[in-house]
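Chapter review. Work through the record for proline dehydrogenase before attempting the end-of-chapter questions.
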Amino acid sequence: MEVLMRNMFQKLGKSRFANRLAKKYGLRFGASRFVAGDTIAKAIEKVAQFNEDGRVVTLDHLGEFVFNEQEAVESAGMCLRTLDAIAQRGVHSNLSVKMTSLGLGLSRELCMRNMRMILNRAREYGNFVRIDMEDYPYCQTSIDIYRELRGDYDNVGIVLQAYLYRTEQDIEDLKELRANLRLVKGAYKEPAEVAFPNKKDVDDNYRRIIEQHLLNGNYTAVASHDEAIIEHVKSFVKAKEIPGHQFEFQMLYGICEDLQKRLVQEGYKVRVYVPYGIDWFGYFMRRLAERPANVWFVLKNMFK
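Structure tokens for proline dehydrogenase:
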């Protein structure tokens, strides 16, 4: 049953019709648990609140489905305005971007233009931009673009996913770039030809690639709510005498709030991934697919 629900949510998340309905009716039915709001102003207020208790942030203007160049340019404009708002308010936040929202599905050239514009603005402010990894068809292209951008920019990183067989080799290949990587388990539905189908294998590979990247001496953002993984990382960095400035823990907005605060109190750097915007549906469906128990929370909100 859980597998069926997970597949259903992942399929819904890619539905253009469902995404249009979600934009029309706004943040309802529990999505606000995982999405900080529909405007930059609301998102910046959340960032300020997190900063007050010692957490830093990466802001993500939600959007994955752009169908023409104008929409891609508008999405890039929102990223620029987000960087402006971060600087103007003086809050501690990076920016995360999905390249499909910047036109990658339309043309590589369009996406690169938008990425360079965003990275230039971020560099002016001394800020950092993280390229989110999307589903498998975009994996190699995303890494290729990251490599090209890394030749001109120091303020850019990328996400790699533990459920893909290829990730261990990707980390080794990116070692020479001193890549700043956000390492995640992975939230898209991928075939067994490219991804580990069993959770245990994903978890084992996740531990391997975290250790691999840390031992390479490169900055590692461990993005997980799995306390067993987090405890493993804490033990590993202590045993290998890896300094605290080489890694951070990352968690999603609305999830494991107590754990986030506890890690801050223990002296670890914690970054909260804070999404905002009207194009929230695909992100929300992936959160439900990751943990179908969240559906009960949504159902309760529908009848309030």
